[in-house]
Amino acid sequence: MNSGISSPSHRGNRFYQGLTATFVANALQAVNFLGDRFLRKSHHPFTSIEDLYRHSMDSAFAVSESFLVTGAPHASAYYPRDFAWFYPDVLDPDTIMDSQDAVRRARLLDKSVRLLLEAVRANVVTTTIVPAGRARYLGVNYFSRPSDTLLGILAGLRQMISAEERASSYLAMSQCAHAGRLLLAEYCGDLKRAILQLASELEPFNDDGSTYLLCDASAPRSAATDTRAERRRFVTNACVYTTFVWGVQLGIVDENELKRRLGRDLEQYKRDLLRLFGKDGYIRHSLDGPTGSPASSVALDFASVHRGFWDMSEPAERALFAATADLIIAEPRFRIPSTFHFLVSADSPRNKMIHKIAAPAYQGRSSWPTFNVEFADRMLDYDEFSGSDTYRSCAQGILKDIRTATEVHGGYQELISEQGLKYRTWAYKGAVAHSWFPRFLSVWRRAHGTPLLQWND
Predict the structure, then answer these.
(1) CA-CA distance, 291 to 212, in Å (whole number)?
(2) pTM above the 0.85 mark?
(3) 48-73 as b/e, with b when 16 or more CB fall inside 10 Å?
(4) Is 3 part of any domain?
């Protein structure tokens, strides 16, 4: 296999959005779900974690794939956010099986990020991109405008550019880093325009005599759990803050230019968000709706994204994280019994009609293994910066139970039901999230100090 991964930009790609595009995209997605419902084949009956991982990597990064996907019923559509939420360790050398695996991953990441950057250039910054024939793509929002699409694109770029920073013998890593730098140079202006546009969309929100800036003060914005359709959510605003920080770190936008747009510097912007959402002593999931018990007011997605909102550098920030984590850990409704599998929330969220029919509890009373992995990783961040072992045993318990579920269910699940089983509804038979598996291995090594799997290559 040729180890080169760089390819010319596909100038023939075209992107569409609008009412017609949304109608066609919905129809295509309905076909995807129906196809999954009636045609999904059973997975290989592997039982060892190594065999499951090898099969997952061969599936996730197959040469025939045109884009990095999860294996879910909706996987034939492209979700930019996934690079921040679910794919941050695709190029971790400790998770790569051999040089061929490295080349496949680097190529697929390059193709994926390149396509998303072309969409940004076409001013199609949506939650979802649905293929509609050769070199034709439909941009559509499910179910509200995005807060984290640009975040995902920047995460993909960051991963490419930093590929050669980790010790690795794979030539594909340095080639991927070079390709990432070229992409950043080519699309920097388009990204700057989109980031500044996002900054201009923030709205003032008044609370207790102070004015804050929110991306969703008057209408919902999406994040990884976007279908809850709530306004004033912590995670959506944390995503926007992280987008600004990463944009500055990558040299896409000048911090002073953002400061002029926001009327405050980024440090103050973050302190404002912590003060607003953490005024009760823990991070409240959403300011929208009635105030319930503390456990009913928090959600697992507060842990945010890899190297994202939480940097744990300030004692006050660590205190808010610990208080929120402790609420989740102590509340039985957050946990699948006898496990360290944590559910997204203690109470069922509001559901739209489509979720009552197709995917009930998708955003609330179910366990996302990947969110659990990020929760464990934030716990390790806390311990590292506080100089303690407060959460290490809990983080290890989370990872151990995810390993067990992976072996029991025959692969790394996208979702696990409230009862600890495969997540199944009429229109959702359950998905093996192949491409999310490397992130689990990366955090496992961090938590235990030794890799779960080793390869001889």
Answers:
(1) 20
(2) yes
(3) ebeebbbbbbebbbeeebebbbbbbb
(4) no
